[in-house]
């Protein structure tokens, strides 16, 4: 049997901690997760956690980063599988709001992360989403599909509105009903940008 290198062992340890944390944060929440219980569940010690992530907050940041990457991948797939760029953009926006109802995303990304990691972390994590949206809007303007305006400013308005709505849905007492309301309002908002396409239903 080939012995694992030190780097492979470190990578494996890191993955174990993130996996265990993701499970715990997603079920019982960040505040109620004991670091001693978490590390013991994967045969490790607090020392390993401190070595890789600094503290519990650092571990949460890594879990959020992993979930964010998976969300981005799903949204990118939705965009590329659409019939055209506009449909891809609309479906991406709608899917993002729907994700706010997924228990893991709801608890970890939309509830615990903002309060524990702060606005600075949230803004930093949104930078890639903002850049992607701005570029998509710029291309849609160039293609003559939507009204021409400053694409970066428009991206900030739309991205900020979507993020705020996701937070609202994550804390709603009637998430399914509120999602339906949000999607109807989103359709009205996006239809207002169109130049050449038939309005969405």
From TrEMBL:
Known DNA-binding region: 34-53
Keyword DNA-binding part of the UniProt annotation: yes
PROSITE patterns registered for this protein in UniProt: HTH_TETR_1 (PS01081), HTH_TETR_2 (PS50977)
Entry-linked InterPro entries: DNA-bd_HTH_TetR-type_CS, Homeodomain-like_sf, HTH-type_TetR-like_transc_reg, HTH_TetR, Rv0078-like_C
Keyword tags: DNA-binding
Residues annotated as domain HTH tetR-type: 11-71
GO molecular function: DNA-binding transcription factor activity; transcription cis-regulatory region binding
Protein name, entry field: TetR family transcriptional regulator
Gene source species: Brevibacillus parabrevis
